[in-house]
Amino acid sequence: MNAPNVRTFSNTRELSVSLADLTVKLCEESIEIRDRFTIGISGGSLPKLLAADLKNREDIEWDKWHVFFCDERLVPLDHEDSNYLLCKKEFFDHVPIPEDQIYTIDSSLLPQLEQAVKKGAEATEEASLEIVEDYEQKLISVFATVNAVKFPVFDLLLLGVGPDGHTCSLFPDHPLLDLTIGWVAYIGDSPKPPPRRVTFTLPVINHAHNITFVATGEGKQDVLKEIIENPECRLPAALVQPTTGKLYWFLDDAAALNLTSSKVTTIS
Ligand SMILES: O=C(O)[C@H](O)[C@@H](O)[C@H](O)[C@H](O)COP(=O)(O)O
């Protein structure tokens, strides 16, 4: 694995500008090589930090973008917990990415999942599988024809990290961390609400050409030191180790406070 590239910024405004610079650069390179830009976005603070500067950039070939969600809460797309809705408000509403190139969960399958949960484990497994398979089909529709590979290879995945070290909907010590096959997984017992979600699996994440973690605020100080500087760390975010791609960390000073300064590139 390549060593992570850790960048710290004195404020979130500077972080957003640099994140937009990197995204534009990767977008241009991907379009040059593959005539499209495939990106996976997470929830939390990320959509706002991504969009703050990027949405005002000119000369971006938005029609070449294909957007997926690294994880999604299993709620209707207009529900306040939806990662899609958050991304829509912060980002999609401000840029002309074609709607049919923003790949959401099939929310029409949610009522049957809710019914199945009441019926028990077997019914839940069946109903959740339908949601998972639908999202995998959407990935196949974009990736399988161009890359005949075992896993989709995203041009860029943008990830957040929780104070517990979770990323996407992969939580510490959860059995989903052991998955070595499958692209999308269902989690019905997320320790962070809402409990029912879908998430990319670790192999999908680790096959990406580029992965960028974004974390801000002092609540992340301890966990970031552990994830970035302890090679023995087994927290989910530490298991993000691209097989051949590049790994970036974009942090503000507060989040990076405990990191050893020699390992960090400071941008002020
Ligand atoms: O679905 C979720 O619950 C969020 O997407 C979550 O996984 C988030 O990405 C991290 O908790 C980091 O969030 P912040 O960037 O807001 O700290």
TrEMBL record:
It catalyses: 6-phospho-D-glucono-1,5-lactone + H2O = 6-phospho-D-gluconate + H(+). Signal peptide: none annotated. Keywords: Hydrolase. The keyword GTP-binding does not apply. The keyword Hydrolase applies. It comes from the Eukaryota. This is 6-phosphogluconolactonase. It comes from Funneliformis geosporum.
